[in-house]
Amino acid sequence: MCGRFTQAYTWRELYELYRLTCPPVNTQPRYNIAPTTVIDVVVPHEAGRDLLSMRWGLIPSWWKKTASEVLSTLNARAETVTSKSMFRAAFKPGRCLIPASGYFESQPTSRGKQPYSISAADGSVLSIALNPLPESAISQ
Questions:
Q1: 3-state secondary structure of 39
Q2: Which of 126, 129, 43 is closest to 81 using CA atoms?
Q3: Predicted pLDDT of residue 88
Q4: Which of 56, 85, 88, 118 is the most exposed place for a label (fewest CB within 10 A)?
Q5: Contact between residue 51 and residue 14 where contact means Cβ atoms under 8 Å apart
Q6: Tens digit of each residue's pLDDT (9 = 90 or more) over 27-58
Q7: Contact between residue 106 and residue 71 where contact means Cβ atoms under 8 Å apart
Q8: The model's pTM
């Protein structure tokens, strides 16, 4: 997963793309979203899909400290996600989709890192698939 991304889309775009079944939400554009920020997430349920707010990041079920004290757990490697204790349990349950308008990747330069914005050529919404965080973790 990228280190920063953007969410700048309309409710109508999300509704049509994901066939949402929840009531309309007043989405607001955000252009520099960092880990631990509360973001828009599409989650499935018995009757369809909802757009919810969730904290971006992983808090393992065995973590005893507060959410603000959790280690940086932004990326998991596909080769070890089922064996590393940090990711193993979270990898098993359902997934969610994070709608994004674009994301940033950096390249090293002689002056430091240079971020580049990456988005769909036609400006459409991108979907990033992740494991959802329990709602109880948002308030921590």
A1: strand
A2: 129
A3: 64
A4: 85
A5: yes
A6: 999 999 988 888 999 998 888 999 999 888 77
A7: no
A8: 0.74
Tell me the C-alpha distance between 83 and 27, whole Å: 37
Q: Where are the alpha helices (DSSP H) in 19-126?
A: 88-91
Q: What are the tens digits of pLDDT across the range 61-77?
A: 777 777 667 666 666 66
Evaluate whether 93 touches 87 at the Cβ level (below 8 Å). no
Helix extents (H) in the chain: 11-18, 88-91
Q: Is the pLDDT reported for residue 84 higher than 80?
A: no
* CB distance 65 to 118 below 8 Å: no
* Percent of all residues in the chain with a pLDDT value above 70, rounded to a whole number: 72
Name the amino acid, one letter, at 26: N
- Which residue in the block uniquely carries the two structure tokens 């920020």? 37
**What is the torsion angle, in degrees rounded to the nearest 10, for the CA atoms of residue 61, residue 62, residue 68 and residue 74?**
-60
Residue type, 62: W
Kindly report the length of the chain.
Answer: 140
Closest CA to 9 of 132, 127, 115: 127
For the chain, list the domains and their CATH numbers: 1-23+37-60+71-121 (3.90.1680.10)
